[in-house]
Amino acid sequence: MNPRIFMGILSAVIGLLAVINPQASIQAIVIIIGISAVINGIYSIAKVKSFSLNPYFEHIMIAKSLAGILIGMFAVILPFALFSMIQTVVRIFIYIQAFFLLLSAVAEFAAVSRTENSAPLVTEALCSVLIAVLLFMLPADFGVKLVRLAGILIFIAGTAFAVREWKSRPIEVEAEIIE
pLDDT band at 85, cuts 50/70/90? Predict the structure, then answer.
């Protein structure tokens, strides 16, 4: 099977699952954001040393990165450890992650004020604020509706992509040799 068709079908299935069970999708989002916070923290610590910047910037970025790693690990581990209280744990960590993202954005804006080439940091800070706002909205009923709407859109896009890829696949024809 063509991998692009498979990706379209997989996207459609993920979208359908988000429509059918938005709570599980929100839990998955929390875990995925936790994993990305750990990866981002590790990456930031590795990258901050390669910059030749002032110690103030390095301390802010290292503290932000370590906090991200710690919160990300909790977001990944605790929902599994406290399975019976999963709903409450997920809601708490959504708020903690959102609050961390806002603090992270503040730290990045503070660091930006002391650096010259700061476009990537400004972009990361603005994305952090946007994700934080979305996370503050997720635990409410609006979050479930938002996840269902996203699921519908992902299902439609995945299905359309798979159908388009299937229709545009190369057609294999067996040649007949005429003597």
Answer: low
